[in-house]
Amino acid sequence: MKLIRFVIVAFLFVFLNANNLVAEEVINITNGEWEPFLSKNFPHYGVASHIVTEAFAEVGIKVKYGFFPWKRAYQNAATGRWDASVIWGRTKERDKIFLYSVAVLEDSDIMFHLKSRPFSWSTVEDLRGLKIGGNAGSAYPLMEEAAKNKIIKLERAQTYKANFGKLILKRIHAMRGTKIAAYAVLRKEFPPEQQKLIAHYINESLDKVWEYHVLFPKKSEKSARRMNLFNKGYQQLKQKGRLDEIWKGFYQGDYDKKSNK
Residues 52-56: contacts with CB within 8 Å, 24+ apart? Predict the structure, then answer.
């Protein structure tokens, strides 16, 4: 009798654990290189990736990231080949295709320039004839409209590092970038003597504060549920004080170190 009871208990243990393994949900998310927030070379793939991973973990979902050039990252999510993409600002085009999570982070678009070339602007017309640098994959609605109307020339590069290099070499007149992200790259990638060459100008009325979200493709029937679960997990991280811990680590340089992943 004891042997039978032992066999039954052992069977139930194996069965229940097997069910748990089968039931574990995995979400595949496209990612890309956007220092200092996202990188395959950073611990936890960067602070924004870490927040997303932990928020999903709060609700029992495991995240797997795939790193792509930004256009491919966007298309892979938009077509539903991948389940979601991190992290993006809201635009009219994206509104048609995606559901947005709560904001994972905020940063402000500003204009960077050389101190030796004083720069200011009140309206887009003040930029007429200038070459403005921007990052590939990033949305600059005002600059894109100005470029379309041939007021400016918008020149895109893959990274902030490349754009700062062009700015220092005077190949562009100014560079559009988000304040926290761009200055972090400037401090990390350029020597102090070159950092001192750079200044920024803030247009209080036209510079945009961006909120960045996880995008879930509308064409997937799983997206609404996953978005709601992510939002729930994010709020749990916030309530526990875990978000504050993660951001404190970010400002202390915990995500600057190269990862072995």
Answer: 52/86, 52/87, 52/104, 52/214, 52/230, 54/233, 54/237, 54/242, 54/246, 55/230, 55/233, 55/234, 55/236, 55/237, 56/27, 56/229, 56/230, 56/233
Give the chain's radius of gyration (CA, Å): 22
Best CA proximity match to 238, nearest among 103, 38, 62: 103
Q: Report the DSSP beta bridge partners of residue 27.
A: 63
Contact 89, 181 (CB under 8 A): no
Is the peptide bond prior to 192 cis by the omega test (within 30 degrees of 0)? no
In a domain, 177, yes or no: yes
User: Side chain identity at 199, as an amino acid letter?
Assistant: A
Tokens of 259: 């990862």
3-class DSSP state of 87:
strand
Which pLDDT tens digit goes with each residue over 25-84?
999 999 999 888 999 999 999 999 999 999 999 999 999 999 999 999 999 999 999 999
pTM, 2 dp? 0.72
| 261 assigned to some structural domain | no
Q: Which domain holds residue 38?
A: 2-105+211-251
Nearest to 255 by CA among 30, 34, 29: 34
User: Which residues 6+ apart lie within 8 Å of 69 measured at CB?
Assistant: 32, 136, 137, 158
